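Submission checklist for the structure archive. All mandatory fields must be present; incomplete records are returned to the submitter.

[x] Identifier: FHA domain protein
[x] Organism: Lysobacter antibioticus
[x] Residue count: 267
[x] Sequence attached
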Amino acid sequence: MSALKLRYPNREHADLALKPGVHAIGRDSAGRTVLVEDAGAAIAQLSVDRRGVWLQVREGLRGLHVNGRPVKRVAMLRAGDAIFLDGVELLLIDDKPEPAPPFGVDIPADSRMVVRGVGGIHHGRCYTLEQPRLIGRAGDCDIRINEPAFADRHARLEAHADGVVLRDVGSVDGSVVNGQPVRHALLKPGDQLLLDGQHRFVIEAPTRQFSAAEALQAQLAQEAASNEERMQPPSALPASVRRMPWLLLAAVVMAGLLSLLLLYGTR
């Protein structure tokens, strides 16, 4: 896992490094939000492992938000998320993304990547990358953000063999990827793109697709299972049902014996 850090706004305090393990967030003597050693004094904690980063909030705590959304108990974080606590914004940052490849380099693209909105007006929407996507305020943009302060043409997203290429095409302040300001970058699956401080997008990789050989093998296995099911003899009857003819025969014999006993016993 890369070196994740919590960064204060305006860098007024040193970044808080987050190594794998559990980190308690509390307050120092001045009331500032800091990492504390005493877990009992924590108001929240971050658990960092190979699966990601988990934020757990002390029961009853109010006023903690992630990307503007309140967190009551637990939330899974990704690089680029903003944690608001006690009026302070802590930004979860990652290493700077790889630089974008130079113009004019022809690299096979994986157009199955998608860009999914997770915040702002495009929350919940997905955009495929069979063709490049232009982000901006202009009416011909593929991902349109119609706000006065937003550039007519902000950036361009295009598929790449290793992810998605972000190229700035006219923004004022650039973009933010995983908490790092950039203008041009190569985005990988899981990276978070933030535009104008509120419009969030995540790069997502396609789910694994079966090859033709695997699909054929699965189909043959399914047909074999169906044939075996059709050829299987009917299931055996329950034991109680199998015993019924013998019980019936025994009852007939007993009835006959009783009839003989009554017939000859009265003489």
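[x] Structure attached
Curator remark: Residues 225-242 have pLDDT under 50 and may be disordered. The CA atoms of residues 28 and 34 lie 6 Å apart.
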